[in-house]
Design a protein that fits this description.
Distance between the termini: 35 Å
Number of helices: 3
Shape: elongated
Helix content: over 70%
Strand content: under 5%
Number of strands: 0
Low-confidence stretches: none
Mean pLDDT: 92
Radius of gyration: 17 Å
Structural class: mainly alpha
Length: 80
């Protein structure tokens, strides 16, 4: 089976899955801007890529924060 599907169907805590997904989202939205600054033309301003990276990393950070809170609540509730 697909390892990604296996991960999301596994018994790993939901908070960890949310954190991992959010960090991947933030990384995938920032990579195009990074690649453009490394290999693109020097005289062009990539406004669209910059906005995508900005909003994607903000969404990834909020998702990671929500995932950490979710994970802490899971740990506290499961202990009792």
């Amino acid at each position: 089976m697909n390892p990604i599907t296996d991960f999301y169907r596994s018994d790993v805590r939901t908070g960890i899955k949310i954190v991992l997904t959010s960090l991947i989202l933030g990384t995938l939205t920032a990579v195009p801007l990074w690649l453009f600054t490394q290999f693109g033309a020097a005289d062009v301003t990539p406004t669209g890529l910059a906005l995508t990276a900005m909003f994607g990393t903000i969404a990834g950070a909020f998702g990671a924060a929500i995932g950490v809170v979710w994970w802490i609540i899971e740990v506290i509730v499961r202990r009792r």
